[in-house]
Amino acid sequence: MTAPAIRLSGLSKTFGAQRALDDVTLEIPAGTVHGLLGENGSGKSTLIKVLTGVHEPDPGARLEVRGREVDLPLPPGAFRDLGISVVHQDLGLLPDLSVAENMRIAQGIAARRAVVSWRTERRLAGQTLRRHGLDIDPAAPVATLSDTERALVAILRAVDELGEHRTLLILDEPTVFLPREGTDLLFRVVADLVADGSTSVLLVSHDLTEVLDHTHAVTVLRDGRVAGTVESATTDPAGLTELIVGADLAAAVRRHAVSGPAAPERPVAGRGRVQVAALTSPRLAGISFDVARGEVLGLTGLAGSGYAEVLPALYGAGGKVSGDLLVDRDALQLSTLTPSRALATGVVHVPADRRRDGGIAEESVERNVTMPVMTTLGTRFRLDRTALRRRAAELCRAYDVRPFDPGKAFGTLSGGNQQKAVLAKWLQTDPRVVLLAEPTQGIDVGAKAFVFDLLRRTAERGASILLASSDYEQLATVCDRVLVLARGHVVAELSGADLNQAVLSDRVLSSTRLLPGPRPHPTALEREAS
Ligand SMILES: Nc1ncnc2c1ncn2[C@@H]1O[C@H](COP(=O)(O)OP(=O)(O)OP(=O)(O)O)[C@@H](O)[C@H]1O
Question: I need a labelling partner for 292 at 20 to 30 A (CA). Which of 13, 104, 143, 507 fits?
Answer without folding.
Answer: 507
